[in-house]
Design brief:
The chain is of the alpha/beta class. It has 3 domains: 74 residues, Winged helix-like DNA-binding domain superfamily/Winged helix DNA-binding domain (Arc Repressor Mutant, subunit A), CATH 1.10.10.10; 199 residues, 3-Layer(aba) Sandwich (Aspartate Aminotransferase, domain 2), CATH 3.40.640; 109 residues, Aspartate Aminotransferase, domain 1 (Alpha-Beta Complex). 40% of the residues lie in helices and 12% in strands. The chain is built from 17 helices and 14 strands. β4, α10 and β5 form a beta-alpha-beta unit. About 8% of the residues have low confidence.
Length: 513
């Protein structure tokens, strides 16, 4: 039986009793940081007995027990048969290392498979596996660290606290009770036909997208759609124009099988299309977010839209138009690229995660007519999309009055939380927010850092305080001229946002001294 240490490192646990975050959640975050980011608790290290740690911290034993239970449920620790709790080796692998660290560069070396304590021989990954490790070296864009869903400032998470769970559950339960056998067993390679009809009609209304339901392919999200399109349209070594900064996950998916990413700078008018075409004239495809550039929020100007569409038409190239916001209520100020006269070269990609919840994992792409036949053949073998039951539930919800009411509520809450966060940033840090038009506000904003402050240093110190954020350079292939913070606010209630900004202000002011 492993003996319990009496205490943990003195600088490891930070509890703030004035915080709206429960003490057990603060303790959980501190312990995960000690296991992962700071590497203070190695695999196999026993944790103190709950009673002893509670006495040391001046908290109830129940607080420690709840934190320990969450650690074990998330796989960071495991219980021993004779009593006690130890850190697992899986936990160390699960927490990604900072860019430039030995672990982040593991894709270029041998990687041990299985538990470190097994003493099994290490085996090398394939060349493709090492490539994937390099692409996945940093955490995912929009997934918060393990813990509560409202962790500030997770990017890409909407206001989940206003989602109508009761209506959703009722619709899903009804589908399970009344679904015909084929809905439970079959997988239509292009997706559930009524959902494809709903997507086509909604996109025509809100984005001006012109399509027949037969052109709509339902996928497991935008990354899945990009992967299918990549395999259909690109050969190894083909050049792809991508926004810089840009969406990491779709970019990584595009590069996974050997496409060469060509970063194109972004300014207040979106991707600098002329610059990209001048420097990379042989590009075969462009991956863009023209309606609201991710993460800056810039809208691609009319001149650049025309230039990009003309290039695709002249060079027989393709454009993947990624819309991270999904289907909103009401029309946008600017139509989709696909809606233009040269839209036959554009594939429109979207998802429901931004308006429903990220875990729904249902996306779609609208194919040009020329791609329907080849993609139908590819999808018949390789598109193992969401279950038809889940697709049917999404269709029932989006087609109902629940969806319109939910989107109205979501837009109101997001506007309120954006205004609150902007005000708190000005109050505690200064007027550093890069403003985007309210129509393209989304669920995050970009806040500039002082010239002498590195985003990675802010991120590291904020993480120790239970604040998850991403510096702008996290989304860049080339180093930005000036770093900034990308702060998600969709899932962050006002009291939590105020508390987190006060702590973040302390970090930034400390680093500027």
């Amino acid at each position: 039986m492993s003996s319990h240490p009496r205490t943990l490192p003195a600088d490891g646990i930070r509890l703030d009793r004035s915080s709206p975050v429960p003490l057990y959640q603060q303790l959980y975050r501190s312990l995960t940081a000690m296991i992962g980011e700071r590497r203070q608790l190695a695999p196999g290290t026993p944790l103190p007995a709950s009673r002893a740690l509670a006495q040391d911290l001046g908290v109830s034993r129940n607080t420690v027990l709840k934190a320990y239970e969450q650690l074990q449920a998330d796989g960071h620790t495991k219980g021993l048969a004779g009593g006690g709790t130890v850190v697992t080796s899986a936990a160390a692998r699960r927490t990604r290392a900072p860019r430039g660290s030995a672990l982040a560069e593991a894709g270029d070396r041998h990687v041990a498979l299985g538990e470190a304590g097994d003493r099994r021989s290490a085996r090398s990954l394939s060349r493709g596996g090492r490539r994937m490790m390099g692409l996945a070296a940093a955490p995912a864009d929009h997934i918060p660290a393990p813990g509560p869903w409202d962790l500030p400032f997770a990017v890409g998470v909407p206001a989940l606290d206003v989602f109508p769970v009761a209506q959703w559950t009722r619709l899903y339960s009804t589908r399970l009770r009344t679904a015909p056998a084929r809905l439970l067993a079959e997988l239509d390679s292009f997706g559930y036909r009524p959902l494809r009809e709903t997507i086509a009609s909604q996109l025509a209304l809100t984005r001006g997208v012109r399509c027949d339901p037969s052109q709509v392919l339902v996928t497991e999200g935008p990354e899945h759609a990009v992967a299918l399109l990549r395999d259909c349209l690109l050969d190894h070594g083909d050049e792809v124009l991508v926004e810089d900064p840009g969406h990491r996950r779709t970019r990584a998916e595009m590069a996974r099988t050997g496409a060469v990413l060509r970063p194109v700078p972004v300014d207040e008018h979106g991707m600098r299309v002329e610059w990209g075409l001048e420097h990379h004239p042989d590009a075969r495809l462009a991956l863009v977010t023209p309606g609201r550039q991710f993460p800056t929020g810039a809208v691609l100007s009319a001149r650049r839209r025309e230039k990009l569409l003309a290039w695709a038409d002249t060079h027989q190239a393709w454009i993947i138009e990624h819309d991270p916001e999904g289907i909103p209520k009401g029309p946008r100020p600017r139509a989709a690229l696909q809606a233009g006269p040269a839209g036959q070269n554009v594939v429109y990609v979207g998802a429901f995660g931004a308006t429903l919840f990220p875990g729904v994992r249902i996306g779609y792409c609208v194919l040009p007519e020329a791609l329907v036949d080849p993609m139908s053949r590819i999808a018949a073998t390789f598109n193992h999309g969401p279950s038809l039951t889940s697709q049917a539930t999404v269709n029932d919800f989006v087609s109902s009055t629940h969806f319109a009411a939910h989107v109205d509520r979501l837009q109101t809450v997001h506007a309120e939380r954006r205004a609150h966060l902007t005000g708190e940033l000005r109050r505690y840090i200064g007027d550093t927010v890069r403003h985007a038009p309210i129509e393209t506000a989304g669920t995050h904003l970009v806040s500039d850092l002082p010239p002498d402050v590195a985003g990675s240093e802010v991120q590291e110190q904020a993480c120790a305080l239970g604040i998850t954020l991403r510096p702008l350079h996290h989304y860049c292939l080339a180093a930005p001229a000036r770093d900034a913070l990308v702060l998600g606010f969709g899932c962050v209630r006002a009291p939590t946002a105020t508390y987190a900004i006060r702590r973040l202000s302390d970090v930034i002011h400390r680093l500027t001294r």
